[in-house]
Specification:
By secondary structure, this protein is α+β, with helices and mostly antiparallel strands. The protein folds into three domains: 68 residues, lambda repressor-like DNA-binding domains (434 Repressor (Amino-terminal Domain), Orthogonal Bundle); 40 residues, no CATH class; 118 residues, Umud Fragment, subunit A, CATH 2.10.109.10. The chain has nine helices and ten strands. The strands form two sheets. An eight-stranded mixed β-sheet has the order 2-4-5-10-6-7-8-9. Strands 1-3 form a two-stranded antiparallel sheet. It is elongated.
Length: 250
């Protein structure tokens, strides 16, 4: 019966009924009725399930002439010519989590670019892979920087500033115009203090800012913004802004 087939396919993929319903966008209560054979799925749901499992609707309905499901990679390998090494590498790639796949893609893109530069007789651009906070730092009204675990990796050109930096931050806002612009990524050297007149990243009452340090205040380079007083606040310096980073894989 269709419920037995659905349960067998779901179990083979290692999914709970809730995970399956979330992936294909159907209601959990209805789906559990399908597996118990209390109800049959409508046509649209049947098609969603068939597409998800890579089978025909006939197979789900238990028709004897229907072909059993085949692994998606097996179908690909049967249709295209791959070496044994290529098949093994593709299988390993598909088993990686999302973040690891992104790292592999960046490596391949980097290697491809270098190979093209060698072919064209040009010197390869030196690159660095660095961590950038997923939280943008405000050049305007402030931004929460408390989540210290929220990082991504990006590839940037190898410069004096990027080599000296400990991490990267993306700017949000226009209060540091025209020194820095909204959307730019800056190189930050981690330090507990900067000198008056230097640009740094500061935490003030739970919000993050990129500003010039003044005497007892933080100064914007855009004259439309007033200085931010540090008196009576909880504040600390997070790092010194060295300059902008040339991000190549955004």
């Amino acid at each position: 019966m269709i419920g037995d087939t659905l349960k067998r396919l779901r179990t083979k993929k290692g999914l709970t009924s809730e995970e399956l319903c979330s992936k294909i966008g159907i209601k959990g209560g209805s789906y559990r009725n399908y597996e118990r054979n209390d109800r049959k799925p409508d046509y649209d749901t049947l098609v969603k399930l068939a597409d998800f499992y890579g089978v025909s609707t006939d197979y789900l309905l238990g028709r004897l002439t229907a072909q059993p499901p085949t692994d998606a990679l097996e179908r690909l390998f049967s249709e295209k010519s791959f070496s044994a090494l290529e098949e093994e590498l593709l299988r390993k790639y598909m088993e990686l989590p999302h973040e690891a796949r992104q790292a592999v893609v960046r490596f391949i893109n980097d290697a491809t670019a270098k190979a093209l530069q060698r072919k064209n007789g040009t010197a390869p651009q030196k690159l660095l892979v660095m961590k950038r906070s997923l939280h943008k730092v405000s050049a305007g009204t402030g931004y929460d920087l408390n989540d210290s675990d929220a990082w991504e990796t990006v590839t940037v050109k190898d410069t004096d500033d990027s080599r000296k930096a400990d991490f990267l931050l993306e700017i949000e806002g226009d209060s540091m115009e025209t020194t820095f612009h909204d959307g730019e990524t800056v190189c930050v050297q981690q330090t507990p203090s900067v000198e008056v007149g230097e640009i740094g990243v500061f935490w003030v009452d739970g919000c993050g800012y990129i500003k010039e340090l003044g005497k007892g205040c933080l100064i914007s380079h855009n004259s439309s913004y007033d200085p931010i007083s540090l008196q009576g606040t909880e504040n600390r310096c997070i790092g010194r802004v060295l300059g902008t980073a040339d991000v190549i894989d955004d």
